[in-house]
Amino acid sequence: MAGDILSQNEIDALLSAISTGEMSADEIRKEEQEKKVKVYDFKRALRFSKDQIRSLTRIHENFARLLTTFFSAQLRTFVQITVASADQIPYEEFIRSVPKMTILNVYEVPPLDGNILMEINPNIAYAMMDRVLGGKGTSVNKVENLTEIETKIMTNMFERAFDNLREAWASIADIDPILTEFEVNPQFLQVISPNETVVVISFNTMIGETSGMINICIPHVVLEPIMPNLSVKYWMQANKKEAKPEELVQLEKRVKKAELTIAAELGTVPMSIEDFLLLEIGDVLELNQRIDKPVTLRVGDIPKFTAQPGQVGKKLGVQIIDELKGGEEDDE
């Protein structure tokens, strides 16, 4: 009750109830004390704050975009992957929610400890494989009878797809995902203890006309070393990171070595497309620049100097006379 803000009508009704005897102050205090007691389930220990879950959601929204781009290029069909939810639950509860026969990939993410689990709905997995083999992307769920060739195709595809996690996690950790195990029955897969808290990120996935879910299960032991990196404070500090003096010196050296295209513009002549198409070898064009006037020296496409044309030995050259200033050129 202390955390609620009452409207004026509610305050008036409460005062009226106390004054008429319908409710006493003791009852209000008793009710407030009762609300302070909350049931806590030790099997569902909450180890991640809402702030950290939001950070993980943002990171995997980027991962979803990377997966969409990767699978669109590989499968050459319509692909849409979006984050549906991000929750922390016991590992046992996640395994119970997974179908008895599905596609399960276990990844190591060195230098972090533990494994990350990726579960792909069989409908989605078979639609992908059908496209890889040149089909229309239809799905036939026969996951319990996977051949060695089908297993190899899926393994290669999901191994390369999960490489995108390296880029998505770049802001919080430098990881190197490695596919270590491929399984179809979750009962044979015991990655961590049943009561261990995990974060499950679910993705809504569309492959052509086939839809399904992709779930990524991240145990607490994997995220524990980088938990501080999931806070808003860390993200704000990362955004405000300033370059070190030695980095600025190195950058300046590299900029000085950059090659630029410099061209002396002797003059221009306005011409219609029709006249341009009628030009022939030997035609003479009259430029709008007098021979006794300095030429414009361009750096890239930007006029920077005026110069006097001449000859250096047997080669043509120009001598810089003055610097051009004005407009955006001052900032270059």
Automatic annotation (TrEMBL):
It is a peripheral membrane protein. GO terms for biological process: bacterial-type flagellum-dependent swarming motility; positive chemotaxis. Pfam families: FliM, FliMN_C. The keyword Ligase does not apply. GO terms for molecular function: cytoskeletal motor activity. Keywords: Bacterial flagellum, Cell membrane, Cell projection, Chemotaxis, Cilium, Flagellar rotation, Flagellum, Membrane. It comes from the Bacteria. Its main location: other. NCBIfam families: fliM_switch. PANTHER family: FLAGELLAR MOTOR SWITCH PROTEIN FLIM, YOP PROTEINS TRANSLOCATION PROTEIN Q. This is Flagellar motor switch protein FliM.
